[in-house]
UniProtKB/TrEMBL annotation:
It is found in: Cell inner membrane. SMART domains: AAA. GO terms for cellular component: ATP-binding cassette (ABC) transporter complex. Its main location: membrane. It is a peripheral membrane protein. InterPro entries: AAA+_ATPase, ABC_SmlMolc_Importer, ABC_transporter-like_ATP-bd, ABC_transporter-like_CS, Mo/tungstate-bd_C_term_dom, P-loop_NTPase, Transp-assoc_OB_typ2. It comes from Roseibium aggregatum. One of its GO terms (molecular function) is ATP hydrolysis activity. The keyword Signal does not apply. Residues 7-237 form the ABC transporter domain. This is ABC transporter ATP-binding protein. Pfam families: ABC_tran, TOBE_2.
Amino acid sequence: MSQPADLELASVSKKYGDTIAVEAINLKIKAGTYCCLLGPSGCGKSSTLRMIAGHELVSDGDIVLGPRVVNDDPPAKRGTAMMFQSYALFPHLSVLDNVAFSLKMRGETKAVRHERARAMLETVDMEAYAERLPAQLSGGQQQRVALARALVTEPSILLLDEPLSALDPFLRIRMRAELKRLQRDLGISFIHVTHSQEEAMALADLVVVMNNGVIEQSGSPRDVFNAPRTKFVAQFIGGHNVVPVDGGEISIRSDRLKIVDPSEPSSPTSLAGTVTGIEYQGSTVLLTLVTEQAGDISVTLPERSFFESPMETGEKVSVAWASEDAHALA
């Protein structure tokens, strides 16, 4: 396996004609990091990944991998490998030959490339399927083969473009654990594009939230969730309410709101509203309220506390929060 390497994006931009897809972003990813680029469609995360891979030209700025600026290097010379959303397996080749294909392009002998391909299939627990064709595999098995094919080149960084989006919810959770195990065992950086907040929180050491071609915030999952910097991050990351206050806005986690007696006097740390939705989620119940001051807000209550004092849609209620649970937004 190649040596893990630091990655730096220095004022990197991508333009398509007059359209700016990525605008002068700066990002440092330490070797051995699981990084998720998180954001809605069109935010610039996939363009960023493809520039790192060398599948898109950089319009401005530098991509530095280890000690080298790699802007002009072709994908095969960068020390990165990319796993595509579609997996892009060759349908006429066996699993073994799919994994070995890039080694064949490098001129390795059949014996060497098959030995390395079998070892990588063992790493992803797919050695028993080496002689099958891709059409004879499930979606999760195809994903493991695509992973093995990307990793057999011994990259310093693995790039993953929405790798879990085609899987059913149960398999998606299983494969999250597999990706995290692989990254930890290999010791290289994984850079993973996703629009799923849950996926990013579960996998990443470093979450990079993108919007309109810029980085809105980066940090550990816990830091980003507990201290969103902007209204966009608070709303996109989920589980937060944005409340206007004098001189700006604050965010409050939905699980930090408490239902209080609506007859109590109002305060700067309370809101009156009407219940518009009740969603049972097993261990919790999610209430949706409409308020005059903040529009729609959500409240997450423990299941037991909700059913001890159940509410109905249309009911007038008030919510309150502790001042230390309000986080100021930029």
